[in-house]
C-alpha cells in the first residue's frame, strides 16, 4: 500500500519571501505543500505547518510582532495547542516567539550586520519530530540570512530551557551573539520548533549542502505518520 | 487625547545599537556612557478622560507596543 502524501501548509504573510522556497523544498521531499494565505481564519486539513522566512509586515515595531495578530497565526496557535506540528524558520521563528508559542525573543545581531552565509550547527536533540533524522552532537551546515537573529532569554528562563532540553540547535561558531549560541528551540511538548537557519535553502548538494533536508524530511516523516493515523 | 509611549530596552539587555552610537559619540569627542536606544510612539487616543486613556494605552503596550521580556514602557498623556 502506498503511504499517503502528508499535507504541509506554508503560511504566506505580506512580506514573507521564503514561502516559495519552503513550498518547493517540501514538495521535493515528497510532501503535498499547501500555501495558506495570512488572512485565512481557519487552516485547511493539514498534517503540519511551516511559518516561512521573510519580513512579515515589514518587520515593523519588532520582527514578528504584527504577524502575531494575523488570522492565520490564530489558526496556527489552535493547531499547535491541539498538538499539531509547527516549524518556524527565521521570520517564522520570530513570529512564534512573539506569539508566545516559543520561548525567548530574537534581537538585532550583536554586530549590527546582516549575516548571510553557511554556518555550522550542533544538534542538541535527536528525539523530536524535526530532528529524528539527525543524531545528537551531529554537525550540520545550513545557511543563515538575518539581521535580527540574536536569540535572547533572561538568565532564569534560559536555565529553565536548558534543564527542560528545549535547546534543539546551537551555532558551532560565532554568528549573532545569541545567548548560549542558541540557533533553534522547541516548546515544552516538542511539537513546535523555531530556528534561524534556513533548512529550505539547503536541500540539494548543488547549493552547497543538503543538511537542511534532514530537518525538513524528518518533518515530512512525522507529518506522514500523523496522516496515516488520521486516515 | 494625545499620548506618547516611550519604549526602552530593559537594563541588562545588550543594546548593540546603543553601543554603536555611544562609540560614534566618543569618536566625535563627547564623553558619554550608557547610551540606550528605544522607540517613541505618538498616538491620538479616543477617550473620555485621562484615566481611560491611560488604561487603553497600557493595554496597547502590554499587547503590542512593548515586549515585556526585553522592553519597559512609559506613558505620557498630553491633555
Structural write-up:
The complex is a heterodimer of chains A (231) and B (79). Chain A has 231 residues and is α/β, with parallel strands linked by helices. Chain A has one domain: Rossmann fold. Chain A has 5 helices and 11 strands. Chain A has helices at 19-28, 71-81, 91-98, 155-163, 212-230; strands spanning 7-12, 32-37, 48-51, 85-89, 105-107, 115-123, 139-146, 150-152, 167-171, 182-186, 192-195. In chain A, strands 2-1-3-4-11-10-9-6-7 form a 9-stranded mixed sheet, with helices on both faces. Chain A has a two-stranded antiparallel ribbon with strand order 5-8. The longest helix of chain A is centred in the C-terminal third of the chain and has 19 residues, at 212-230. Chain A is globular and about 45 Å long. Chain A starts with 6 loop residues before the first strand and ends with a helix. The model of chain A has no long low-confidence stretch (mean pLDDT 96). Chain B is of the alpha+beta class and 79 residues long. Chain B has helices at 16-27, 50-65, and strands spanning 2-9, 39-44, 71-78. Chain B is elongated, with a radius of gyration of 16 Å. Chain B has one domain (2-78): Phosphoribosylformylglycinamidine synthase subunit PurS (Mth169, Chain: A). In chain B, 35% of the residues lie in helices and 28% in strands. Chain B is built from 2 helices and 3 strands. The model of chain B has no long low-confidence stretch (mean pLDDT 96). In chain B, strands 2-1-3 form a 3-stranded antiparallel sheet, with helices on one face. The relative contact order of chain B is 0.34. At the A-B interface, loops of A face helix 1 of B.
Amino acid at each position: 500500500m502506498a503511504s499517503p502524501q502528508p499535507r504541509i501548509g506554508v503560511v504566506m504573510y505580506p512580506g514573507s519571501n521564503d514561502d516559495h522556497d519552503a513550498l518547493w523544498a517540501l514538495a521535493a521531499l515528497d510532501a503535498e505543500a499547501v500555501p495558506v494565505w495570512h488572512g485565512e481564519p481557519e487552516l485547511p486539513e493539514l498534517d503540519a505547518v511551516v511559518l516561512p522566512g521573510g519580513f512579515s509586515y515589514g518587520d515593523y515595531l519588532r520582527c514578528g510582532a504584527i504577524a502575531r495578530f494575523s488570522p492565520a497565526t490564530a489558526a496556527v496557535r489552535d493547531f499547535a495547542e491541539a498538538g499539531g506540528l509547527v516549524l518556524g524558520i527565521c521570520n517564522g521563528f520570530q513570529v512564534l516567539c512573539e506569539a508566545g508559542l516559543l520561548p525567548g525573543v530574537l534581537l538585532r545581531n550583536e554586530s549590527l550586520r546582516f549575516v548571510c552565509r553557511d554556518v555550522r550547527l550542533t544538534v542538541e536533540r535527536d528525539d523530536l519530530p524535526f530532528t529524528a533524522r539527525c543524531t545528537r552532537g551531529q554537525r550540520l551546515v545550513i545557511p543563515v540570512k538575518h539581521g535580527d537573529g540574536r536569540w535572547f532569554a533572561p538568565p532564569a528562563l534560559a536555565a529553565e530551557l536548558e534543564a527542560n532540553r528545549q535547546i534543539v540547535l546551537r551555532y558551532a561558531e560565532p554568528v549573532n551573539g545569541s545567548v548560549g549560541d542558541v540557533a533553534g528551540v522547541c516548546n515544552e511538548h516538542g511539537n513546535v520548533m523555531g530556528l534561524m537557519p534556513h533548512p529550505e535553502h539547503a536541500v540539494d548538494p548543488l547549493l552547497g549542502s543538503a543538511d537542511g533536508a534532514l530537518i525538513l524530511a524528518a518533518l515530512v516523516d512525522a507529518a506522514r505518520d500523523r496522516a496515516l493515523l488520521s486516515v | 487625547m494625545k499620548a506618547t509611549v516611550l519604549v526602552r530596552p530593559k537594563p541588562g539587555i545588550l543594546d548593540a545599537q546603543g553601543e554603536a552610537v555611544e562609540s560614534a559619540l566618543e569618536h566625535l569627542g563627547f564623553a558619554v556612557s550608557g547610551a540606550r536606544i528605544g522607540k517613541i510612539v505618538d498616538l491620538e487616543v479616543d477617550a473620555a478622560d485621562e484615566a481611560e486613556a491611560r488604561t487603553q494605552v497600557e493595554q496597547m503596550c502590554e499587547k503590542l507596543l512593548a515586549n515585556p521580556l526585553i522592553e519597559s514602557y512609559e506613558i505620557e498623556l498630553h491633555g
